[in-house]
Structure formats: structure tokens, C-alpha cells
């Protein structure tokens, strides 16, 4: 971003930070990702899929929701890139994508909610 004079000079040299400011598209991606996690059911589904791979019917039973409702949330999570799927015969299985963003989101959710991962509990108990 080119240097431009700012209306007020507070002596903070914000121009230095403006040089490293990501473009608007980068913030749009992050904003869209957070929009996907604005629903508590979607966060619970995402969290579950960080720990297991599961089909819609089992997820619906675990969430105490209808299959169409779970499918709706899965579609949004998949469109945002945090969930992936694979087909085996007639069954479709979902799990969290194996990306740095997903790992960070998972960790952030657990930290904010003070939830321990089942795998971490096993390590502590073992």
C-alpha cells in the first residue's frame, strides 16, 4: 500500500503497519470463516469432526438433530473449507480438513470453551 498522509499525526508511524496490511480479500476469507462458526450447533458439529470421521445419520443422532438440519450445517462447513467429505458406497463420511486454519480453529474453540480433547485426556490419564 503506498504511503499516504493521514489526517491526524499521533506519532505512531502507522505507515509502517500499513505496508504489511493484507488486502481486503484476506480479511473477507477470515470473516466468512467466522460467519460459519456463528451457530452453536455448527461449532459442535465442527468440534466433533475434529475428533472423528462420521456420517450424517450418526452426527444427527449425536447432535439430537434431524439429518436435513445436520446436512445444512455440513454443507456450510464444507463450503468454507473446514470440513471435507468422502464417499464409500452410498454413505458419505465427514471430518475436519487437515489444514493449519482448522487446527487453529479447533484449538481456539477448545481454549475458549475450556474443553479438553478426548485424545489429550487419554494422554493425561495414561
From TrEMBL:
A Pfam family of this chain = HTH_5
Q: State the SMART domains in the record.
A: HTH_ARSR
- Please give the organism: Candidatus Allocopromorpha excrementigallinarum
Which GO terms label this protein's molecular function in UniProt? Answer: DNA binding; DNA-binding transcription factor activity
Claim: Lyase is one of the keywords in the record: no
Please indicate if the UniProt record lists Transcription regulation as a keyword.
Answer: yes
The UniProt keyword set, sorted, is: DNA-binding, Transcription, Transcription regulation
Q: What is this protein called?
A: Winged helix-turn-helix transcriptional regulator
On the tree of life, the source organism's domain of life is Bacteria
For this protein, the record's InterPro entries field holds: ArsR-like_HTH, HTH_ArsR_DNA-bd_dom, Metal_resp_trans_reg, WH-like_DNA-bd_sf, WH_DNA-bd_sf
* Entries under PANTHER family matching the protein: ARSENICAL RESISTANCE OPERON REPRESSOR ARSR-RELATED (PTHR43132), HTH-TYPE TRANSCRIPTIONAL REPRESSOR CZRA (PTHR43132:SF6)
- Kindly give the NCBIfam families that the UniProt entry links to this protein: HTH_metalloreg (NF033788)
Domain HTH arsR-type: from-to ranges: 22-116
Species classification? Bacteria, Bacillati, Bacillota, Clostridia, Eubacteriales
Per the record, the coiled-coil ranges are none
Amino acid at each position: 500500500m503506498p504511503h499516504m498522509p493521514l489526517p491526524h499525526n499521533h506519532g505512531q508511524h502507522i505507515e509502517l503497519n500499513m505496508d504489511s496490511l493484507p488486502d481486503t480479500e484476506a480479511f473477507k476469507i477470515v470473516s466468512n470463516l467466522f460467519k460459519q462458526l456463528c451457530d452453536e450447533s455448527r461449532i459442535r458439529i465442527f468440534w466433533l469432526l475434529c475428533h472423528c470421521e462420521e456420517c450424517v445419520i450418526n452426527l444427527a443422532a449425536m447432535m439430537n438433530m434431524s439429518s436435513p438440519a445436520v446436512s445444512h450445517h455440513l454443507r456450510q462447513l464444507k463450503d468454507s473449507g473446514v470440513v471435507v467429505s468422502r464417499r464409500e458406497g452410498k454413505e458419505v463420511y465427514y471430518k475436519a480438513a487437515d489444514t493449519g486454519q482448522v487446527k487453529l480453529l479447533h484449538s481456539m474453540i477448545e481454549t475458549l470453551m475450556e474443553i479438553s480433547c478426548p485424545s489429550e485426556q487419554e494422554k493425561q490419564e495414561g
